[in-house]
């Protein structure tokens, strides 16, 4: 059980999470592993961030409406899970970060955690000369209007969904890098009919999964520690004007 002890924990409240690079892994394996990690952790268990890439899968949040799956015959499996939110798609070319954090130890409210995760996405996009923005009432990150994004302004590029159990989080955030976007046409992404979903490659970024994952991991770590890193210069493979 994840609980804050009466006496001070030997772990620093701001200790950086341990990064785990799990590579390509079936969604069900990651789901069961993060649930087990959360169930078995103690007040002294270090926080972790897992970086994963999944084979094609739709996931439906615990209060999700199956009607948002528009094409049940797509051949892509649907997994019902215990995170918040509606339906989303995971697949090759998408960086998924699972955030296994003790929020009480970090003295983080859920809303503040979501804000920091979203800022990490915005910072990562900025490292590749892309601008992202939040939308009120719609968790995730969307392409900000600009002269070089054309009709993709407002498209969703990152999705977010969490589960909090006994003061600890699991599930996380996904960032679209270079994907086959057609499966998103088979759903109402996050429950929004007609919402366009886009990836970084469509917007001109040539960086691959590994490069973006490293940048994203560093940005998540910095933001969760409360010290967002300034972007000194564009990353390799950034979009060119």
Produce the secondary structure layout.
Elements: E1 18-24, H1 27-40, E2 48-53, E3 57-60, E4 78-80, E5 87-90, E6 94-100, H2 103-106, H3 110-127, E7 132-135, E8 138-143, E9 156-165, E10 168-176, H4 209-224
Parallel strand pairs: 1-2, 3-4
Antiparallel strand pairs: 2-6, 3-5, 6-10, 7-8, 8-9, 9-10
Helix pairs in contact: 3-4
User: How would you classify the helix and strand content by structural class?
Assistant: alpha+beta
Report the count of strand segments: 10
Largest sheet: 7 strands, mixed
- Class, according to the CATH hierarchy? Alpha Beta
**Main sheet: which strands, in order across?**
1-2-6-10-9-8-7
CATH homologous superfamily? Bira Bifunctional Protein, Domain 2
CATH architecture: 2-Layer Sandwich
Give the overall average pLDDT: 89
Shape: globular
CATH fold name, please?
BirA Bifunctional Protein, domain 2
Counting DSSP H or I runs of 4 or more residues, the number of helices is: 4
Q: Which stretches are poorly predicted, pLDDT < 50 over at least 5 residues?
A: 3-10, 229-233
Strand percent estimate: 15-25%
Estimate nothing, just give the exact number of structural domains: 1
- Taking all Cα atoms into account, the compactness measure Rg is 17 Å
Query: Could you spell the SSE succession in H and E letters?
Result: EHEEEEEHHEEEEH
Secondary structure: helix percent: 10-25%
The span between the termini is 50 Å
Structure notes:
- By secondary structure, this protein is an alpha+beta fold.
- It has a single domain, classed as Bira Bifunctional Protein, Domain 2 (BirA Bifunctional Protein, domain 2, 2-Layer Sandwich).
- The strands form two sheets. Strands 1-2-6-10-9-8-7 form a seven-stranded mixed sheet, sandwiched between helices. Strands 4-3-5 form a three-stranded mixed sheet, with no helix packed on it.
- The longest helix is centred in the middle third of the chain and has 18 residues.
- The protein starts with 17 loop residues before the first strand and ends in a 17-residue tail after the last helix.
């Amino acid at each position: 059980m994840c609980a804050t002890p009466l006496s001070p924990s030997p772990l620093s409240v701001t200790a950086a999470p341990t990064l785990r690079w799990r590579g390509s892994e079936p969604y069900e394996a990651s789901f069961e592993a993060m649930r087990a990690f959360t169930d078995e952790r103690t007040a002294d268990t270090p926080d972790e961030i897992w970086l994963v890439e999944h084979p094609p899968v739709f996931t439906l949040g615990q209060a999700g409406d199956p009607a948002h799956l528009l094409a049940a015959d797509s051949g892509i499996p649907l997994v019902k899970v215990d995170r918040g939110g509606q339906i989303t798609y995971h697949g090759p070319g998408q960086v998924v970060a699972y955030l296994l954090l003790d929020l009480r130890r970090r003295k983080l409210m859920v809303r503040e955690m979501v804000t920091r995760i979203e800022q990490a996405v915005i910072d990562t996009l900025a490292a590749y000369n892309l601008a992202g923005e939040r939308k009120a009432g719609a968790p995730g990150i969307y392409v900000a209007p600009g002269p070089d994004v054309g009709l993709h302004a407002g498209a969703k590029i990152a999705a977010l969904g969490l589960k909090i159990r006994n003061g600890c989080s699991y599930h996380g955030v996904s960032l679209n890098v270079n994907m086959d976007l057609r499966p998103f046409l088979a759903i109402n992404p996050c429950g929004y009919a007609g919402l366009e979903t886009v990836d970084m490659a469509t917007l001109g970024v040539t960086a691959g999964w590994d490069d973006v994952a490293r940048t994203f991991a560093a940005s998540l770590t910095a933001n969760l520690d409360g010290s967002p890193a300034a972007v000194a210069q564009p990353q390799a493979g950034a979009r060119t004007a």
